[in-house]
Specification:
two-stranded parallel sheet; Rossmann fold; alpha/beta; 7-stranded mixed sheet; 188 residues; 6 helices
């Protein structure tokens, strides 16, 4: 399993590069919509970088764990803002398959937003939906700093199904790049 571990500083720099691309493009958003949960932090940083105070969200579920997803995205908590006639910037952390980002963009447009652009930190080479703005391509599973424990738990469950347990499992997680501090918090 190929993992890409990012620090808070790495993420800040990458999101700032996305903001610079948005500025260069000339796109002016009336409202940023965070695709919850992965889009919360990038969306808030983009608000800061683009001097936007209006931030809304909606939550969808698609991924159930590392590499495990539902058949299709599903809205769990609806959009908490009126978007009719507004230019929207949708923000998520990554466009992996692209299904959830396309789903949310289409949903926003069905609510009569005048325009909906998409931004992510990362894009996978196999995505079927290219965001309008993104920082980097990667084929690795990304471990963002706001989800290290969650990702480590998901990987630990998979490794447990493969027969690893106890100290063997902890050592494997550390070789995958998780810190001893994160591994010590897992309930193995």
């Amino acid at each position: 399993m190929k993992l890409l571990h990012l620090s808070w500083s790495n993420c800040q720099i990458l999101i700032e590069s996305v903001a610079a691309k948005i500025k260069r493009s000339g796109f002016k958003s009336d409202l940023i919509v965070a695709v919850s949960r992965g889009g919360f932090i990038p969306a808030r940083i983009l608000c800061d970088q683009l001097s936007l105070k209006r931030l809304a969200s909606l939550q969808i579920e698609y991924y159930q764990g590392v590499g495990e997803r539902r058949d299709s995205p599903k809205i769990i908590y609806p959009l908490n803002a009126e978007v009719k006639g507004l230019r929207i910037l949708l923000v998520d952390d990554v466009s992996d398959s692209g299904s959830s980002l396309r789903f949310v963009r289409d949903h926003i447009l069905s609510l009569e937003a005048s325009e909906a652009k998409t931004a992510t930190i990362h894009m996978k080479p196999w995505t079927k939906f290219n965001p309008d703005y993104y920082a980097k391509n990667t084929d690795a599973w990304i471990v963002y700093p706001w989800e290290t424990l969650e990702t480590a738990n998901s990987i630990a469950r998979k490794l447990g199904l493969e027969g690893l347990n106890g100290e063997e499992l902890k050592k494997r997680l550390i070789t995958l790049g998780f810190s001893k501090k994160v591994v010590s918090k897992l309930s193995l």
